[in-house]
């Protein structure tokens, strides 16, 4: 059986590539994928010669959010599903932020919901010309997790973060670049070559200094990512108990507009 997260390591340049591998579901993250992601990140902590990490997705998307179907049903079932995901994802996110190597997200297609959060956790984001970026949590009546609220404010500021959440806006690759959400858009048809070139350049640099720069930048804002991840979890689980969340999930699965009532 193929792993839902594929880890490859190039001994020649020290680049580890983690590929989300549920292309039939646009890499929507479920518990097996989240647990495989955690296992892969743990294996990188002691990887000798690690110089750079690349996150990418198989097929047509980076990651089209979480597995919303697992959150359908009762509040109890939804809470269990969310906790099972975050019990694996939150530690994986922290491991990546603490590695002595820079992280690059290579986004092809959609980065939505948890996919957007995970991409923003990278030091650099490069996308193909057709990529799309969206918060998506507003559609199911809850808040971003996986560091979404932490990273969004740092990348684009509170005003634009609110615009994405409250208006349900989807950004094209060029709009995301103009907003400062991502760092580079590859010329159409040259995504793989551009990502490889950028990765090689970063991997050839002072990787430990890059990682120290990341940690200092995180600390400069005065917030603790570990504590913030748990605050997001608490807010998400609070939202799970609302009628709006149940309506949002049902509407998502039925592919119809949600009718929220603020309850």
Structure description:
By secondary structure, this protein is an alpha/beta fold. It has one domain (5-189, 206-254): 2-enoyl-CoA Hydratase, Chain A, domain 1. The chain has helices at residues 31-45, 75-98, 114-120, 148-167, 173-179, 191-203, 207-220, 225-240, 243-254; strands at 5-10, 15-20, 52-57, 63-64, 103-107, 110-112, 124-127, 132-134, 170-172, 184-185. β1 (5-10) and β2 (15-20) form a beta hairpin. The chain is globular and about 55 Å long. The N and C termini lie far apart (43 Å). The mean pLDDT is 94.
Pattern of helices and strands? EEHEEHEEHEEHEHEHHHH
Largest sheet, strands/sense/barrel: 6 strands, mixed
Tally of individual helices: 9
Q: What is the strand tally? A: 10
Rg over alpha carbons:
18 Å
CATH architecture: Alpha-Beta Complex
Q: Give the integer mean of the pLDDT values.
A: 94
How many structural units, i.e. domains? Answer: 1
The CATH topology label is 2-enoyl-CoA Hydratase, Chain A, domain 1
Strand order of the largest sheet: 1-2-3-5-7-10
Q: What's the CATH superfamily, by name?
A: 2-enoyl-CoA Hydratase, Chain A, domain 1
The low-confidence runs, each spanning 5 or more residues with pLDDT under 50, are none
**What's the CATH C level?**
Alpha Beta
Q: In one word, what is the shape?
A: globular
Helix content: 40-55%
Structural class: alpha/beta
Distance between the termini: 43 Å
Task: Please report which band the strand proportion falls in: under 5%, 5-15%, 15-25%, 25-35%, 35-45% or over 45%.
Answer: 15-25%
